[in-house]
Amino acid sequence: MTSETRRAQSQDAFQYRIAFGCWINDMRNSALPLQQWPAPQCDEHTVEGVLRTLDVISEAGYQFLDTFGLYATGEYPPDIVSAFQDEERNRNLDTLFRAAEDRGIRISLPLGLMTWGYDRIIAEDPTVRGVDGEGNPHAHAMCGAKEKSWSYVEKLIDTMFARHSFGAVHLESADLGYCMCPECTGQYGVVGYNARLNARAADYIKSKHPDVVVYTCPISWAPFTVDENGRQPKLSGDDRDHIIELSRHIDIFMDQGHRGRLLAWEDVPQLECAYGTSGGLWVYHGSRQDRLSYFLPYPLRAANHLKDHHAHGTRACLYYQGPMVNPAVEINSAVAGYMMCDPGRDPREALEEAIEVHYRPHSAEVRQRLADVFLSVEEAYFGQWREESFNEQQNLEMPGEFIMGNLFGTQPDAATFLAEPYLEAPERAVFSAGIKAALAELATLSGQAEDGGRIERMTRALAVMHHLLTTVMMARGEAWC
Ligand SMILES: [Zn+2]
Fold it and tell me: pTM for the whole thing?
């Protein structure tokens, strides 16, 4: 696999550095306040958001961009090909593929495997519809034991590759559930069934496109809920063996870690493919939130998680992106990319390089003070999270995937990230003080960088976030002024 990027890599660089969209409008720089998730459109604002992301990730040394929602979200038509005939969409997507190529970034083919994409097909062709745990027709999944289900999947793969030269394929078989009939999970168990689906799909793709990187994202192969030790149980026994067998067919087992990972670190060396994560912590940016209504930087955590995962044998990362107009998103993505290229790097040095690149500060002192603002807000927010709060209130590990609003909905979401289990009353007061200190510092830095308006956007995002925070505090009867 070629990894020629604009950024030099150390010899222990992550082998696979993949930016994850994750849905195409999550990278959009203007909000869609009433849009149900996932947003299906591909308009000029979608294109602008992806282009901006491509700029950031190519500079930061990523190799791939993986984004769902290129041609459809939940509903490919039974003939598959008519999803590819929208002229405006095709024009916009062709622009994106060309822009990616110009920047040395390969696009990854997003493939829901038996789920995500087949709702219309199972409605119009019930012979391929799977069943749920009660034996009722499944809401989203095809039955993997039916050869006709595979004909839809293979036609989708072939149609995608006929249109574009994808560099990778993202396989995801269980996010919306899976067929639980006696021939599917009834015969092989949840992990065994999903592993078999992924191995077969990977074999099909590799038989036609041997150089394409194929990776499996095992979301929902096991519940996220924690055991008595407050941890998501790791796979063992037959389930672990199914993963090891799957690793002979794919290039990366992408154990993202939404709320804990599936494999124990000590089992990683048994894999015959690369092991990947999503870098330990990420904000999931739905498309309804105003892009400058929050400022949640985590460059230090990004760097330290990637170092830790690398030390445990992780060699691939599927790193979540977001609306790059938000200055925290941009820095999170840039620093993560730098660290993947050189995991031995000092995190602070990587952060200052990202600030140098994107802010062009007038002096080293300005660069250092801007870095301090990022780190101080990171600490004032994420530094106050407590594992026990997530264990007790959600029966989950600390995120992993930090969904700062809601996934589903048709209105701008509440600022849930300022309430429990993320922050409680004492932490809200500390966060308020941290935001105000950052705002005061930014006021003195204005005009001291060729920053393309970033300091102004940071200021707005911090100020709006403080409005939301004090509104939560006021409503809870906490001292807020
Ligand atoms: Zn089935």
Answer: 0.97
